[in-house]
Protein 1
Amino acid sequence: MPSRFQIKTYTDNTYHHLFNRGVEKRPIFLEDKDYAVLLSYLKTYLSPKNKNALSVQATNSSVSWRERDQALRLLRMNNFYGTILLLSYCLMPNHFHMVVWQKHGPGIDEFMNSLWTRYTMYFNHKYHRVGTLFQSVYKAVVVSSDEQLLHLTRYIHQNPIAHRKLRTLDSKGEALRSYVWSSYKEYLGLRQAEWINTNTVLSRWSINKEYEYEKFVLETDAVDSAKLIAPLMI
């Protein structure tokens, strides 16, 4: 019987928690470049595509063939700007989490299939392997409230320390701030990425948004938070 998270019903203007892990819980990222490649795909898919400029470059004989070829590939590539918004993510060695908003269905399905098919092709080619990279089809569940959305981003951003025995808020805060492969740095204003929408969550606070969000992530009661988002987990 398929998991309830595998039977997906998408509706317009909804937030979803998306997640998956490697087949047999094996790593899906083996080195820093793998994480960086996946993020480069996300940036390309979620940033606006200037078709006119790319068309000009693709036919401009004064630029190199590499630049023309790159322009052609970008023109052909799927683009989900305006259809999918990425609110938060965390990439871990053998799994990932994302929170996205979709304008209309089946935008998420097209986005996820395109993104992870492309990454699997990259991964298999690089590491001389064949077959599926993930244990199953990605999981998806609708986020039902603003409060649930807020606590879900907390859970996702805490993934890098979830299984580490860090005893103080200072050590936990430093561990999260130093983790490169999540959107937490964007939420704290330590890094900027226009293709990540932090405002939906940060608009909960009127002043000192980044400070208040970090305080929320580090100081919220873990048990109460876990209960709130339990319906979004495996």
Protein 2
Amino acid sequence: MASSRRQSTSLELLVRAAENVLRIIRDETSEIVVACSFGKDSLATVDLCSRVFDRLHVFYLYRLPGIRLIERYRRLIKRRYKNIVQIMMLPHFDLSRIFRYAVLMPHWRGLEDTPALTFREVEDYVRLKTGVEWVAYGWRRNESIHRAVILKHPDGIDFNNFRVFPIWRWTAKDVYAYLHRIGIPPPPTFGRRDQSGFDFHPAALKYLRDNEPDTWRRWLECFPFSPVMLVEWKNG
């Protein structure tokens, strides 16, 4: 019982700290853009932002549109948060590399001419479409070395690039506890320890093959060599 109370108190302190970070941005604007992968971290970030800002502009970057699992969470947060203005479903910037270098597909003619696209260019496009400068991300510093390097800014705010990271000090356990508290079912992790967004990980591909056969067929039209990854993953 005492352990449960300590955990609850610790989570409450983290929530207050996250809200305080967001309120620093709220002093400048009543609206914010939220990057959402519909993974556990970004779902928690959407909820925290909904508590502080009057209007949310959410964007999701897809590898393939129309995945039912993603659509299920898109509808969930659209229904749940009345201050969400829009959920923009945009092609992932990584697709420019995937097509340019024919990853998981034959070298179809013209792929080498695919324009290169960067994360920052997508971010700036969303800013242009929404008219909102500040973007909130559900990145955590203990998620990876790469994220730890990025999240070197005091209090999780990057004033130079207009980015805020409200859960930068949280652990995965904290995020799961928060989702449980607010009643949002956690998304699958596809066999990974800490991430839950949908990408090219073999476990995510296996999920499509086993649970969304119609989506899997569409996926194979774009990335016909994907079954090779499943074979290698199983044998590895």
Protein 3
Amino acid sequence: MAAGEAPDSVADLLEDLLAAFPNERVSVGELIDKLESRAHGVLLLILALPMCLPNVPGISTVFGLLMLAPALQMMFGQRAMWLPRQMRAWSFPREGLCKALRAAIPSLRKIERLIKPRWPALTQWPATSLVGLQTLIMALILILPIWGANLTPGVTVVLTAMALLQRDGVLMLLTVPAALGSMAWVYFGAKYSIYALEWLIEWLRAFGAS
């Protein structure tokens, strides 16, 4: 994409992906190769969208692990997406990917009306080193086996990806409070869950002793 050229629509990019993989399973390597220079933003978007949808169980840990690579590479300013051979060989059902993309595209088209290239320096190196650190923290939250902790970091990474793809620095700034809210949600959720578990154990002990 040339300097000054308007970024492609994110929804259009996702629709192109729907037609790009005819097989029943999609490997991570195939996905990266198809995305080319847009790999960081689109990969983050694809990995985060299922976290924002209900009834997609058991994938947050795997997708969180996959987010580590683009997050770390953004931190160190790598433009080209690189993954180890073993990670490139990982695959997942095409239908699950397509279901998440189809569900997200109508909402993305509405959101895109509010997004445009603004303050592009916040979506480029060296600002993206901080963006990568923030995304790394969101990925680590997704990896943790905490019930109900997927949505807020998922939304944060979706916003981050859209800001990268549309070169929208204003949207990128909005990801900061979203990330802080995600960390607060996980911290207090885990804290009070432990309190509740301790109370339940004490109650069961008291009940058993009576």
